[in-house]
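Researcher: I need the complex structure. Ligand is cobalt (II) ion. Inputs:
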Amino acid sequence: MNPDTPLQLLGGITAREFLRDYWQKKPLLIRQAIPDFESPIDADELAGLALEEEVESRLIIENGERPWELRRGPFAEDEFSKLPEREWTLLVQAVDQFVPEVSELLENFRFLPSWRIDDVMISYAAPGGSVGPHFDNYDVFLLQGHGKRNWKIGQMCNTESPLLAHADLRILAEFEATDEWVLEPGDMLYLPPRLAHCGVAVDDCMTYSVGFRAPSAAEVLTHFTDFLSQFLSDEERYTDADAVPTTDPHQIQRDALDRLKGLLAEHMSDERLLLTWFGQFMTEPRYPELVVGPEEVEEDDFINDLEQGAILIRNPSARLAWSEVDDDLLLFASGQSRYLPGKLRELLKMICAADALHADNLGEWLKDEDGRGLLCELVKQGSLGFADE
Ligand code: SIN
Ligand code: CO
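Model: Output:
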């Protein structure tokens, strides 16, 4: 993708300009980001998803049993018919995992690293419905799917920003609107992390939120050090063979701290392990139970099927990314990683990018032993599967 091509999705600016001027910095309203956008799912289908055990959903009722009542799914069908006429919102997380047309929408966001994208949440709101003024710790693109929504944006927030007393929802106690727009289907609002916002449904409306993954510093440190510790032996310890006599035996001196910093720095600077951990972490599937491959795959049969016209597609729950380390490649597939020879670069790029893999686009790769092995592994692991399965 050429970063200097103006994109309709970004209101006619290029990916380079968007990243330079807006991404993580300031909001951008884009009228008709997706012209004549028609939501691929309707309110009934969204409500249908919220009945399912494996789908994460929430209902927020502004004047329910208590102010801003939160109910968590899965819901019973009759729960929807008992809702008030106005002022409630149904939010369904990760709809892209369950509805291929919603997952296809993410193709529009290929100017950003795919491993940064988390999911597409869809909300349905009755007139007046809102989840209250709040801020998120992630970037978000809010695409209007159906009906009209009034969006107000406000101040930049942080952990000190006062919140309403609520056990589960982080609703801002103070909201100073600085801008306001009514979004219609196809319009989109980009918001950087921590910017206060509040969307109120004008009529019954659906909003798509494309959300991003950004691990917190605490997550990076705890998860990376957990990962690292698997490779460290119990014998490797704090050492002070260079110690000199101290004037006070109770004092922890500067040299002890320096040795400790040396021990940490030595392991923290292992770039191979850092990259391996990061790639695995960022490709961790949201629902690992949905990435399960067939137990047995015979490589010969599998290649034969492809040669006979079978089509391999990515499991919508799978997350793929790749990187390079010296002359080798590292493939990350749904939380796992694997080193591959540098000659597989083009195949790897195709596996990560193509909607479908078949004898035509795979071409000579089907004759390459490492290439065949890789495809077969990904099927066994569940990241790829035959289209008709
Ligand atoms: C909504 O769709 O109602 C809320 C989305 C958001 O504010 O992040
Ligand atoms: Co939000």
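Model: Summary of the prediction. Residues 8-212 form a domain with the Jelly Rolls fold (CATH 2.60.120.650).
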